[in-house]
Amino acid sequence: MGQTKHTKLYDTMGVPTDVSAEDLKKAYRRKALQLHPDKRGNTPEAQEEFMAMKAAYDILSDPKQREIYDMMGEDGVKLVSQYGDLGPDELLMAMLGSLSASGPLGKCLIFSFVALFLGFFATIPLFFCLKVDNDVGWSWLTVFLPMWILDGIYLCCVGCSFFGDDADIHQEPEDRQSKPLRLLVKTLLLVKSLLFVACQIFVAMKLQHSIDWSMHAVLAPYYVLEGFYLFEKVVSGALAYASFVRASAADPASTSGVSKTSLILDILNSWTMSILRLAFALLIAFKLEDDLTCSWWLVFLPVWIYIVTLVVPHIQTYIRRRHRHQPGHDEEEPAPSFLGLLCVFIGIFCAMSPFFILAYRLQSGEFSSFYVLLPWLIMVGLVLAPWVLMVLLNLLSCCCVCLCGRGANDAEDPATTNHDTV
């Protein structure tokens, strides 16, 4: 492992950067005895120095925080501790809060990065639409160019992980995975990434008529990939259920917050997603090979089932909360809002509406394929509109400040010149 350039916390503890967990504990005990405020007059300076040493130990004794500190220093630890445990909605609010606290230049840079990121991803479906509508004469290999760029970055990251250091010296020996298990996990990750990229290559070659394979052969890497995911979820679900049963048998209070039914439903839900994706790919292959004579609406049946799985939990939650809010129940919960439930339905419909438009176009539509992407483009525009307005307002205020400052300086120059002359 390379020498870290962040050594402040190690210097505070008086240990080298490659200190083991056991030696770090010994150093902490030694420092705690030396710097304890009771032995140094209990002055504010002594308390501050002791707390700084304690904070350094708290970071270095945690394997994850120590790894982050070695890479990014204390600022990286603060950033991860602030945003790392937040949910997607909370993370978005925190990012917006940080954005509002930054200056005009910071807002402009952040918006430019977000716009560039979204714009690059938007080129993927846009290139497909241009090719499907015969608006460009590019080859399908060219249409897939943005995907090749993303695949290259993805494979580089996976390759670095595969050939990187196996052991983590920051972890306790009993917490480290065995070397064969680490090699197996890395190999599976590499195989899955290669299958993902191979499927894209086969699809591009099939569309380009470079190969005369059946759709099942073209999608074979995807079948295997989804098989891997399903197998992993089945194994992890079985292990989670066995762990729950053992924990509840040893100490029923330890699992009081989770019921067996909810755990089973969560496990089955994770399996369902993989099964639906695999079934959707199979139905598309059968339809394109003319082995199915049904409509495209039936081919999209896994998508409709997935939409139902998104809607039903919200309906169940609404009914349960409405029942608990009736007179005679002591649970203090906020009243269920039908408007909130309706907003959830509208959001799900807007997010999934391109699949309805796509099914209609494949079945009987002759309109431009850009209409398939129209709901997503509108949603992206609504998300970016406040950012654009905020950046423009900040740039305008910055220009006003600069112009006013320059005008004030110009007004002061003659007086200053006359004073210097005198």
UniProtKB/TrEMBL annotation:
Q: Where would you say this protein principally sits, based on its record? A: membrane
Gene Ontology cellular component annotations, sorted alphabetically: cytoplasm; membrane
Instruction: Check the record and name the InterPro entries matching this protein.
Output: DnaJ_C_subfamily_member5, DnaJ_domain, DnaJ_domain_CS, J_dom_sf, TM_Fragile-X-F-assoc
* Stored PANTHER family: DNAJ HOMOLOG SUBFAMILY C MEMBER 5 HOMOLOG (PTHR44027:SF7)
In its UniProt entry, what is this protein called? Answer: J domain-containing protein
Give the way it sits in the membrane. Answer: Lipid-anchor
Give the matching CDD domains: DnaJ (cd06257)
Q: Where in the cell is it found?
A: Membrane
Per UniProt, residues of the J domain are 8-73
Which positions, given as ranges, span the membrane? 108-128, 140-163, 183-205, 263-284, 296-315, 335-358, 370-396
Q: Which UniProt keywords apply?
A: Chaperone, Lipoprotein, Membrane, Palmitate, Transmembrane, Transmembrane helix
- Gene3D superfamilies given for it? DnaJ domain (1.10.287.110)
